Amino acid sequence: MPREPPYFYAPSVPRRFRSAGGNIMTTLTGIDSRRGTTAKTRDRSVDLVRAILLIVVVGLHSIMAGVGVGAGGIVMENALDNLPGFAPVSWFVQVMPLFFVLGGFSSFTQWTRMRERGHSPADYVVTRLHRLLLPAVAVIGTVAAALLVMTIIGVPADLIATAGFRISQPLWFLGVYVLCSALVPLLVGAHERRPVLSLALLGTAALSVDMLRASTGISGLGFVNLVFVWLTVQQLGFWLAEGRCERWGVRTRVAVGVAALLALFLLSVPGPYSPDMYENLNPPTICLILLGIAQLMLFTVLRARLREVAERPRIAGLVNAVGARSMTIYLWHMPVIIALAAGLLFLNATVAVPLPDPLSAGWWLTRPFWLVAVGLAVIPVVARLGWIEGAKRAELFLSGTRMLTPRVIAAVLLGAGAVLVILVTGFALGGAIIALGMLAAALRLVAVTGARSTARSAAVPAHHQ
């Protein structure tokens, strides 16, 4: 997944929100408006690794795109499903646990900074919903329109359904991240009171779901761990943010990481779980928690060196560019990949451009060119649409005193539910329309909440804000 930086990218902040000392501006962006410098607490190593992980996700999804023409017609498949020996490779390229760990770090940092400035849990959640849902409206609306046009011009229904399904698959992250973000204030409080107990309870809940799924044979029960597994991994990020892991010596951290990998090996190779970490993603299992622990330990060991690299001016500039548009990159890369695949099919049909069979020698030889093509196609799309990710948020970051309101809770459920509708329907037109309606309702609810926060803040004397 995409980066949710500890300080939100805001292209501009109205003058009335620039409080004395620049506190609001610093909270939003991590930049002290009086000095033009990055806040001291910003960790560039986290920014760097999250940018790298996002690029890995885009690259891996690009490799997965297997397009060809077989005896039965056009084939559009996940090429890696048929790759022999992919299971051990998946231990290295399954990066979602570390994404959620670093997301937990950023969430902890952002919420605690907002809380120190008098913001309420509702303020935090409204902020997250805007960052996550605004770009989603754009991509879902555009993809639905494109699939409708394909239907009108006579593209075969099965090909449209396959394209919609492939585009919808990465959206699971958005739905889960909406729920995880909404629970950050609650879980940070639990962590601050009982760090070990809160982590243990979430991990135990994830293990219980796995055991219940195995004992009943009802595979659908495993999807409950879309909540418990990722909340557990997010909680690990809270430990990282407080520096708890780095209080241990390097040898201890290495030992913990090795122990986690050993437990993962025993559970997945001779044990009941799949050794393929992508099979353990759908539905999530405790294997991803163990992998996340190992990845966290590796990150802490390499962190000082990563920070040195991340602070180089050119690299910092690239990392900032990716981070400011991370959700846009994540949401749009798959539609771009599918559009490029459709272009290849068109060229094959019109000018007989050959399409090598997925996983053949010729197919692998063309992958570097394919990856470059995807990158070159994603860049202008993100440059054109990235502004949406930073739009209309400043008015939401005003002081509030209330806990989560029914409006905010309803917005969270509508946002996550919209993603669920897309996943279930595979971007069918009716499902896309319903999802867009749910997202519009969620954004309307948080806009009303933001407006009420503005009114409350305006009624408070400046020396109380």
What is the element layout, followed by pairings?
Elements: H1 23-29, E1 31-32, E2 37-38, H2 44-64, E3 65-70, E4 73-78, H3 86-93, H4 96-116, H5 121-152, H6 157-168, H7 172-182, H8 184-193, H9 195-216, H10 225-241, H11 250-268, H12 286-310, H13 313-324, H14 326-351, H15 361-385, H16 406-425, H17 429-458
Antiparallel strand pairs: 1-2, 3-4
Helix pairs in contact: 2-12, 2-13, 2-14, 4-10, 4-12, 5-6, 5-7, 5-14, 5-16, 5-17, 7-16, 8-9, 9-10, 10-12, 11-12, 14-15, 16-17
Structural class: mainly alpha
Share in helix: 55-70%
- Indicate how many domains the architecture comprises: 1
Strand content: under 5%
Q: Enumerate the spans where pLDDT stays under 50 for 5 or more consecutive residues.
A: 1-40, 394-401, 454-465
- CA(first)-CA(last) distance: 35 Å
Q: Tell me, what's the shape?
A: globular
Number of strands: 4
The profile of the biggest β sheet is: 2 strands, antiparallel
User: How large, in whole angstroms, is the Cα Rg?
Assistant: 23 Å
Q: Secondary-structure element sequence?
A: HEEHEEHHHHHHHHHHHHHHH
- Arithmetic mean of pLDDT: 85
Q: Supply the number of helical segments.
A: 17
Lateral strand order in the biggest sheet: 1-2
Describe this structure in words.
Keywords: Acyltransferase, Cell membrane, Membrane, Transferase, Transmembrane, Transmembrane helix. The protein is mainly α and 465 residues long. The chain has one domain. It is built from 17 helices and 4 strands.
Question: Could you write a compact summary of the structure shown?
Answer:
With 465 residues, this protein is mostly helical.
